[in-house]
Amino acid sequence: MRHNTEHIKKRYNRMALVFDLLEKPMDGFSSRWREEIVGAVHGRVLEVGVGTGRNIPYYDPSVQVVAIDFSKKMLDKARQKFEKNYQNVTFVEMDAQAMTFPDNHFDCVLTSCVFCSVPIPVLGLKEIRRVCKPGGKIVMLEHVRSSHKLVGPLMDLMNPLPLYLYGANINRDTVGNLRKAGFGKITVTDLWGDIFKKIVVINDK
Domain 2-202 class? Predict the structure, then answer.
């Protein structure tokens, strides 16, 4: 695991300088989705894979956020943009697969386009289950493999390219991985075809 994680981390460190520019074409619709998922969390919140901080402006000042990422350079970009003006957000370099937080620590957990990149996604999701309080909420904006008989295989065929360039898999089964991690109460809303999804999970441990 460690070897693969270091490879993915290096790819995101390499992309940090231009990441916001690459993501900009998606802003027209993704900003609305981000506002929606951030509006669904409360209390003490863990954001996993904060990247360059694209969700930060949408948090209510009353929400206390710990924002983690395993890429130092992505995290540095987020700090540079938001640390001064968003005192309710603490930025921490940390791997989602091996978090150092105590059990049952957060009221809510938020992710956006993260579990395409976690090297062992079920391990990361098990860690989220551990650190989220019983009855707590996990809110996710994720892209997954299409179930369409033509689109799904095409995504499989194309997957090596984004994986090599910046460490993202476009053919993950995140809902299936949530079930493998032990979650049962899962609500899924399709946002763009059956690829982009809003996933809300109640931590029923």
Answer: alpha beta
